[in-house]
Amino acid sequence: MLFNSFAYILFLPVVFIIYWILPHKYRWGLLLIASYYFYMSWNPQYIVLILGTTAVSYFAALAIERAEIRGTDKRIFLIAASVFCLGILFLFKYFNFFISSLFEGLRIFSIKLSPVTLNLILPVGISFYTFQTLSYVIDVYRGDIKAEHHFGYYAAFISFFPQLVAGPIERAENLLPQIKSVKRFNGTGAIDGLKIMLWGYFKKIVVADTLAIYVNQVYGELRGYDGLALIITIFFFSLQIYCDFSGYSSIAIGTAKLMGIDLMTNFSAPYFSNSIREFWKRWHISLSTWFRDYVYIPLGGNRCSALKQNRNLIITFLVSGMWHGADLTFLIWGGLHGCAQIIENIFYKSIKKIKQWRIGRYLSWLFVFGFCNVTWVFFRADNLDDAVYVLTNILNGITMPAAYIQKGYMALDINGFRLLYLGMLILILAVIDFVTYKKGELKLICLKNKGIEWGIYIVLGVFIVLFAQKGVAAEFVYFQF
What we know:
Layout: H1 6-21, H2 24-40, H3 47-70, H4 75-108, H5 126-142, H6 151-159, H7 172-180, H8 187-220, H9 228-258, H10 276-282, H11 285-299, H12 306-324, H13 328-346, H14 348-354, H15 358-380, H16 384-392, H17 401-412, H18 416-439, H19 450-467
């Protein structure tokens, strides 16, 4: 069930009404049933996986707590839970890639064997809820939180439907207490949730899905394009993936707010960053902080020599790349971001001096935005050959600027009206994100003149209805992870 589907439009009001009608002691049950129904709408069989990881992590945390009290070794339960949860993730997401890579490596030594692969469909959201269960068990092991003894509350936390399939990856210390706490309906909070959802739908349905038309067109017949058409496509995909994923996060945050629950901010104007490090503090925040807390810091973080710190960075970003997908392109994407941060660390003092000047800050922003655009090519390309083709053909014909520009726009069939429309969407996005960047968080549009305020939201709604791409609801990009 997609957020941007008719089924969800029917599903959400029903859950919302029943949730607030029910007494508090039954609400966790409704959330659990609704969440499992939501997940099973994709593939009923895979509910076994989320039930399994939930049960194993739940009992492992209880065993860790008991071992702590008794003074016995608790590591075995952490290891068992980690092996089980990561083993499921490996089987469905990485097994075929690992086997194929292994047999390709054997061919170097003239050992030719046919790899045995599994015909498995990647369960939607498996990377997200696996990390959520792991962080819970690790936090209990560290003593940061107490183990949850009520299985229903814990299962509702793991499967909470707004953030189940694409995050934010919530921590138990934030979400569990909210599921357990007594709440009274707050009309203002519910309206704020609807406003946040509206902005999320605008980003996804109006901006991301519009740009996806051009991106999919080019990547579908990549060898038929070069020059400016590829540059425009790179730029469009950068905006598409941002609006697609941050749009999902906004809808998830707004939906949760309807239930009186606050999810963590997952995006904060990342494309206004003027360093790669800052970008990762603003992009997919729930994942970047997860890797920081459970990979980078345990490796030693920055509490070690510069050499080891750089090692920790590159390992963390390589793992982050592999988390996104079982392909060499994702590994390269993560590695490039890791290397960029290492370079920033090495030249930190020089970069700091440059940023003291306004022009230096603009140049830093331009470099970071350009770097992110280029590295997204590895993220979007179907394989390494396609990524290399894009990056080696973007300047074809640039020696004749007029023809270069004309050919690029003609190849993508962008007429004057379409260019104006796309420019307007990008401008709206840039203005909202710039305000977010300056204020530190997205402020809902709250004006003294409520007529103007609601007029703005109505306009956003009209855009969604009139300019939404027709046909079947488009899936969110991050569902594949």
